[in-house]
Amino acid sequence: MKMSAFEDKGMSRREFVRRTMVLSGAAMMGSTGLGVSGGAWAAGSDAPEKKEIRVGFIPLTDCSSVVMAAVQKFDEKYGIKIIPSKEASWAAVRDKLVSGELDAAHVLYGLVYGVHLGIGGPKKDMAVLMSLNNNGQAITLASKLKEQGVTDGAGLRKLITAKPGEYTFAQTFPTGTHAMWLYYWLAAHDINPMKDVKVITVPPPQMVANMRVGNMDGFCVGEPWNNRAIMDKIGFTAVTTQDIWTDHPEKVLGTTADWVAKHPNAARALTAAILEAGRWIDSSLPNRRTTAETVAQKSYINTDMDVILERMLGRYSNGLGKSWDDPNYMKFYSDGAVNFPYLSDGMWFLTQHRRWGLLDKDVDYLAVAKQINRIDIYKQAATAAKVPLPKSEMRSHKLIDGVVWDGKDPAKYAGSFKVRA
């Protein structure tokens, strides 16, 4: 893609050069991983127990590393074949993981934790092998709210206070990431999602169609459906999730604990292949474009490539006349920082499940995270793919309301919020 094309998108020459240098550096660092021989785990006790691995995904931009691991054949290097399986809803992903119809899946972080604890469906011991991406979701509000003077959270609070009524917001799964981002953002503006509005569950690909016919006032979902709403002129971006929590955990590679126990080598091979795919996507702008072209196809996301590409390159417009280059756009690798299954990330979702009454009591947050997040498998895969490891299994962040999450006292944190169920 020529530089002029990026400038046509509104990206300055300086910004283009900066990103190219950053991504080129990442590519050079990432290339060291390609020295692992094709048969690195293909012989003896290291051989994958299962050669063909069926991995479910939902049509969202953040399924990209799963898809590209198969398309670019990173899987072959580790002696496996990834078979991407397009699914209709997160509930379908949950059910097929539990039944064994899927080996693993691109899945919501909080869904995996919910199933493990028996929230929102059948109870089954689960496993998170890696984080697939950070950032890249958003909250979209319907154009009809703009006509009533709402452009942000403060304006929404003002409207709900002045004109109480039934305002409907959609998320994609009750224990999932989008529900938690939506609830957190509403609560940060003193709107109680359990009392002040009605919340419904809608599968990601159906969000835009439901907003078009007036079924909702807002939704939280992954890309490209927020950008699709803007291009279809039915909604606008009120906030991106990276503005709620910069570099937040999002989708994970999830499976059952049973599957990992039976297929530890296959789990490692799968994780390593997807790590390499994430590194490949993030290593250059042309690779991101190739990814957008690939996942836009009917067998994957099934939408116009440009709808995916803009925000994948960090080019944001909010549907209200504002455009910007977002440095915290969707990341798939970031020198491995994206992919490590931090214990504190998983624990955060549990604190929010407790906050909103999905958990009726505090659990041993750290113990649960240690059960689910398979750091042992991840470290083996990272070694195979030559991916750096962080110094700590915990990390700290300040969220949109100024509250810091560091995982140190999760029960106290969960109970500290003024707005809660």
SS class:
alpha/beta
Measured between the Cα atoms of the first and last residue, the distance is 49 Å
What is the strand tally? Answer: 14
The shape is globular
State the strand order across the main sheet.
Answer: 2-1-3-10-4
Notes on the protein architecture:
The longest helix is centred in the middle third of the chain and has 19 residues. The N terminus is likely disordered. The radius of gyration is 21 Å and the shape is globular. Strand 13 and strand 14 form a beta hairpin. The protein has 421 residues and is of the alpha/beta class. The protein has a five-stranded mixed sheet, sandwiched between helices. It has a five-stranded mixed sheet with strand order 7-6-8-5-9, with helices on both faces. It is built from 20 helices and 14 strands.
Summarize the structure.
With 421 residues, this protein is α/β, with parallel strands linked by helices. It is 43% helix and 15% strand.
Properties at a glance:
421 residues; 5-stranded mixed β-sheet; 43% helix; alpha/beta; disordered N terminus; 14 strands
Give the SSE layout:
Elements: H1 3-8, H2 13-30, E1 52-57, H3 64-71, H4 74-77, E2 81-86, H5 90-99, E3 104-108, H6 109-117, E4 126-131, E5 137-142, H7 143-146, H8 153-162, E6 168-171, H9 177-188, E7 198-201, H10 207-212, E8 218-222, H11 225-231, E9 235-240, H12 241-244, E10 251-256, H13 257-262, H14 264-282, H15 285-295, H16 305-312, E11 315-317, E12 323-325, H17 343-355, H18 365-372, H19 375-385, E13 397-398, E14 404-405, H20 410-414
Parallel strand pairs: 1-2, 1-3, 6-7, 6-8
Antiparallel strand pairs: 3-10, 4-10, 5-8, 5-9, 11-12, 13-14
